[in-house]
Design a protein that fits this description.
Elements (H helix, E strand, L loop, with lengths): L1 H15 L3 H10 L4 H33 L1 H87 L6 H24 L6 H23 L1
Helix pairs in contact: 1-3, 2-3, 4-6, 5-6
Length: 214
């Protein structure tokens, strides 16, 4: 019973914040040796610290529970901020990629326009060459007609009508063939084919001219 009273006295004095010397002296007055008093004081302080830690833990737990909703709001706000930042980065990336795609489309459109213009220019050059060739042929025909009229005055027919019609028919066929080839393959004609058609036209004209003067 006396031990319990000593322990109570020590705990009470420790809780009151009494100096160690005074607590030891009080224990000595109660008949406790100095070394034993120091040990009891250490035990009492340890028990007091344990109670203090429990009290502090309880206070911290209560404070955490009280501020839990606030912590959750802060966490949600931070998560929403991070999510918005990530969405902004995704939008920026999408806009950048869209700009690249748009530039690629513009470049392709320009390249296509250049190809079309080049094709048109080539076609125009081809048409100009054909026009020059046709003008030359027309001049040649006019000259041939003039020569024909002059030769008709000075020459007599020496060949039969069958032979004349045959040459005329061949000339007409050649001329028609060359015209059909020119119209049918106008966009695909190259210089060699244009030359061949020109030769066919000249040959047909020559045959028709020969059939007339014969």
């Amino acid at each position: 019973m006396q031990d319990e009273s000593i322990i109570n006295v020590i705990q009470k004095m420790v809780q009151e914040g009494q100096p160690r010397e005074r607590i030891i002296q009080t224990l000595r007055d109660l008949g406790v040796e100095e070394e034993q008093a120091k040990k009891l004081l250490l035990i009492a302080e340890a028990d007091t610290f344990t109670l203090l830690r429990k009290e502090i833990n309880s206070m911290v737990k209560e404070e955490f529970i009280g501020q839990k909703s606030q912590f959750e709001d802060i966490i949600h706000a931070d998560l929403a901020k991070v999510e918005e930042e990530e969405k902004g980065k995704v939008r920026e990336l999408a806009v950048a990629q869209l700009g690249d795609v748009r530039q690629d489309v513009i470049n392709e459109a320009k390249a296509f326009e250049e190809r079309v213009n080049k094709t048109i220019n080539t076609s125009q050059k081809t048409v100009s060459m054909v026009k020059i060739a046709l003008d030359s042929i027309n001049e040649r025909i006019a000259q041939i007609e003039l020569d024909t009229e002059q030769l008709k005055v000075h020459k007599f027919r020496k060949k039969s009508m069958v032979f004349s019609y045959t040459m005329l028919g061949i000339g007409v066929v050649l001329l028609a063939t060359s015209i059909i080839m020119f119209i049918w393959k106008f966009m695909d004609l190259d210089n060699t084919q244009i030359l061949m058609i020109g030769i066919m036209v000249l040959a047909s004209i020559t045959l028709m001219f020969a059939s007339v003067i014969s």
